[in-house]
Design a protein that fits this description.
Number of helices: 8
Largest sheet: 7 strands, parallel
Bound molecules: nicotinamide-adenine-dinucleotide
Order of helices and strands: EHEHEHEHEHEHHHE
Radius of gyration: 17 Å
Strand order of the largest sheet: 3-2-1-4-5-6-7
Shape: globular
CATH topology: Rossmann fold
Number of domains: 1
Helix content: 40-55%
CATH superfamily: NAD(P)-binding Rossmann-like Domain
Structural class: alpha/beta
Number of strands: 7
Distance between the termini: 51 Å
């Protein structure tokens, strides 16, 4: 990486040891960023960061559990300590645990809300504080879901949390606009990741039915999602804030049979 380190933009990603977060990290590296690979699985985050470093990137790992506000602050601090600045947060931490609502325990409900909604807030707040203190703006992207808008059975907590993320994004966007911090969400439909593969194996997802339901006729790739994040954190999106951009092959638009 030939850029002067003080000019190179820096991104912190959560849930970035694998899946969408890892793919977005790879795209942001290609866009010229240094990255902090945050994940609750610290060892896996280290492995991913090493992979990127071996390929020539500036990358470090941070053990970040997004349900822990102090851990989010420590992840932000790692970006500041190692790279000297923070320009972008991408919060991609998440779990999927479909279950009949009548069977859902209070603990399962709370855990989903804790990771998907409380985590989105703690990560954004930690990044927002650092960006305000730096005084040169920034971008925050939450990885949301089409379930912020469309209900699936057996996803009561997940969908409620993602709908909350859409409103969180609007609120932070208007609150932090005077600091030139833009806050948006990218909401994928079913995306080819380990999370989706596990759901297919457990019988939670019928791929053929989904392909029939999606106008563009296929699942999303991690690259599809990464492209949207890359755009939103670029200057080409400098007038876009408070939005949820759905990367869904037309899923949400489709209202026919
Ligand atoms: N895969 C899909 O089809 C799909 C569709 C729509 C939205 N999403 C959303 O995209 C995001 C990423 O999903 P993915 O498919 O890449 O999943 P994934 O399971 O492949 O990766 C998720 C990563 O988040 C990490 N993680 C889990 N809990 C965490 C926590 N408390 N703190 C920090 N990291 C944590 C995991 O260790 C893992 O590395 C999630 O928010 C998910 O809800 C996924």
């Amino acid at each position: 990486m030939s850029q002067n380190s003080s000019e190179q933009r820096v991104a912190l990603l959560t849930g970035a040891a694998r899946g969408i977060g890892k793919g977005v990290a790879a795209q942001l590296i290609a866009d010229g960023f240094a990255v902090v690979i945050g994940d609750v699985r610290g060892d896996a985050a280290e492995e991913t960061a090493h992979e990127f470093v071996a390929a020539g990137a500036r990358a470090v790992a941070a053990a970040v559990d997004v349900t822990d506000a102090a851990a989010c602050t420590a992840g932000v601090q790692k970006a500041l300590d190692v790279f000297g600045r923070l320009d972008v947060l991408v919060n991609s931490a998440g779990i999927s645990a479909p279950k009949d609502t009548l069977e859902l325990t209070p603990e399962e409900w709370r855990r989903m809300i804790d990771i998907q909604l409380n985590g989105a807030f703690f990560a954004a707040q930690a990044a927002g504080r650092a960006m305000v203190a730096q005084g040169r703006g920034g971008c925050i992207v939450q990885i949301s879901s089409i379930n912020a808008e469309a209900a699936f059975p057996r996803r009561a907590a997940y969908a409620s949390a993602k709908a909350g993320v859409a409103m969180l994004v609007k609120t932070l966007a208007i609150e932090w606009a005077t600091h030139n911090i833009r806050v948006n969400a990218v909401g994928p439909s079913h995306t080819e990741t380990e999370m989706t593969r596990a759901n297919i194996e457990k019988g939670n997802i019928d791929v053929a039915a989904i392909q029939r339901r999606i106008p563009l006729g296929r699942l999303a790739t991690v690259q599809d999602v990464s492209n949207a994040v890359s755009f939103l954190v670029s200057n080409r999106a400098e007038y876009i804030t408070g939005q949820s951009l759905y990367v869904d092959g037309g899923y949400l638009a489709y209202g026919y049979f």
